[in-house]
């Protein structure tokens, strides 16, 4: 697995601004929002992410920019965060890395076939718990 920290292209940064408006809603099951705190600043951040696979206990997220992105490092430092997905809010914990095979095994049929072609080796697994 790659551990480098690739910088997101400017186009991806612009996409994220637009994606924040629709990610996490019931009608957008692929896209979610992860809320996390800066590990140094303590500031609250919201990052749109794509849910590649899921089980009743976990979600699997592709990491196209690698493991070293700030939002991943923030979740690792805090050990938890919040996920807004399909119109619901979840507490997420135990951030850990999953390989491509584990992630694809948790992906539903069509998503598995599509993701199998572009999914990077780096994926993040988060444990789910409904928020109160």
Shape: globular
How much helix, percentage-wise, in residues?
25-40%
> What is the CA-based Rg, rounded?
14 Å
Q: What is the residue-averaged pLDDT? A: 84
Strand tally, please? 6
N-to-C terminal Cα separation, in Å? 35 Å
Task: Assign the CATH class.
Answer: Mainly Beta
Number of helices: 4
- What is the CATH superfamily classification? Electron Transport, Fmn-binding Protein, Chain A
Global structural class: alpha+beta
GO molecular function, one term: oxidoreductase activity
What can you tell me about this protein's structure?
There is one protein chain. The protein is α+β, with helices and mostly antiparallel strands and 132 residues long. It has a single domain, classed as Pnp Oxidase, Chain A (Roll). The protein is built from 4 helices and 6 strands; from the N terminus they run αβββαββααβ. The chain has a 6-stranded antiparallel barrel. A hairpin with a 6-residue loop joins strand 1 and strand 2. The termini are far apart. The mean pLDDT is 84.
Question: What structural keywords apply?
Answer:
single chain; 132 residues; alpha+beta; Pnp Oxidase, Chain A; six-stranded antiparallel β-barrel; oxidoreductase activity; Split_barrel_FMN-bd; F420H2_quin_Rdtase
Write the SSE topology.
Layout: H1 10-19, E1 31-37, E2 44-54, E3 58-62, H2 70-78, E4 80-85, E5 88-98, H3 100-105, H4 109-118, E6 123-130
Antiparallel strand pairs: 1-2, 1-4, 2-3, 3-6, 4-5, 5-6
């Amino acid at each position: 697995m790659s551990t480098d920290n690739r910088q997101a292209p400017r186009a991806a940064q612009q996409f994220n601004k637009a994606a924040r408006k629709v990610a996490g809603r019931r009608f957008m099951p692929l896209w979610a929002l992860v809320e996390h705190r800066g590990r140094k600043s303590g500031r609250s951040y919201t990052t749109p992410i794509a849910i590649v696979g899921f089980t009743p206990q976990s979600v699997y997220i592709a990491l196209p920019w690698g493991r070293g992105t700030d939002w991943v490092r923030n979740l690792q430092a805090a050990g938890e965060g919040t996920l807004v997905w399909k119109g619901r809010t979840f507490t997420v914990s135990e951030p850990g890395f999953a390989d491509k095979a584990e992630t694809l095994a948790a992906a539903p049929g069509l998503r598995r076939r599509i993701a199998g072609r572009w999914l990077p080796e780096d994926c993040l697994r988060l444990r789910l718990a409904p928020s109160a």
